[in-house]
Specification:
The chain is mainly β. It is built from two helices and 14 strands; from the N terminus they run E-H-E-E-E-E-H-E-E-E-E-E-E-E-E-E. The chain is 5% helix and 45% strand.
Length: 262
């Protein structure tokens, strides 16, 4: 995808300081110049919203500090840029708690919209569970999963965290879904009717509160992927895990991420 939306805020600080010292003294010791800036006064309405720092595939939200040092006519000026992380101000957060309700899911051969191996189609399988679809960025994605039955041995069960980036281009909305993180919760053919916990820690810079802005939006999804043992899967070891395959069964649910005061 060639189109990239970058939301940047650059803050420039110009420090003019007179120092009565020789050039040798300046080179011989470290001089620290403290400074600070208030992005928003308490109780003041901000004209521009400070979205949280986010590093995505097609959308990046960055806040940068640029420092320039002029050294005279015969010397090259020095310049450096550093990124700092912005999170939502706790005073702006809503007084609401994250919902404790979880989404219940059923994964069977009948819920799959892609072709399956003949033995999976005929023998069948059933995986049930529940998972949180609204989650605080400070907490993990939690839930549980149970393999009720399966005619084909299971190879692996994974939880995929997906981001959905959308950009407004003219009158069209361009959307791309990418994989952020994969967490394996089971390796090998698990016991039937045994409850497996789901516990996924969110990566900081690759996630942010769900954003629905004018020119862009950042949303998230969570996908439960079950890989069955198959000789065919060994021939496609480098395939995209988001792509439905004959030996895969999956269920994808929307995930809302929020920033809480806790």
């Amino acid at each position: 995808m060639a189109l990239t939306y970058i939301h940047k805020s650059e803050l420039f600080f110009h420090l003019v300081i007179g120092i009565r010292a020789s050039r040798l003294d300046l080179q011989a010791r470290l001089i620290q110049i403290p400074f600070s800036v208030i992005l928003k006064q308490p109780g003041e309405e901000s004209l521009e919203r400070f979205y949280e720092t986010f590093h995505g595939t097609d959308i990046s939200i960055q806040y940068l500090v640029t420092v320039d040092i002029s050294r005279g006519y015969l010397h090259k000026s020095l310049s450096t840029t550093m990124e700092f992380i912005v999170e939502s101000d706790k005073a702006d957060l809503l007084e609401r708690s994250v919902s404790s309700e979880m989404a219940i899911f059923y994964i069977t051969q009948d819920t799959q919209r892609h072709p399956l191996l003949p033995e999976l189609k005929s023998g069948g399988f059933l995986v049930t569970g529940r998972i949180s679809t609204q989650c605080s960025l400070l907490d993990p994605i939690s839930g549980e999963l149970t393999v009720e039955r399966s005619a084909v041995p299971i190879c692996s069960i994974d939880i995929h965290l997906l981001r959905v980036e959308s950009i407004l281009l003219g009158e069209k909305i361009v959307t791309e879904t990418s994989l952020i993180q994969t967490t394996q919760i089971a390796d090998g053919d698990v016991c039937r009717s045994m409850t497996l916990p789901i516990y996924v820690i969110l990566p900081r810079l690759l996630t942010c509160p769900t954003v629905l802005a004018g020119p862009f939006s950042i949303e998230f999804k969570v996908s439960i992927v079950i890989s069955f043992q198959s000789e065919l899967s060994k021939l496609h070891t480098k395939s995209d895990p988001r792509t439905p395959r004959l030996w895969l069964a999956m269920e994808t649910l929307p995930l809302e991420l929020v920033r809480t005061k806790g």
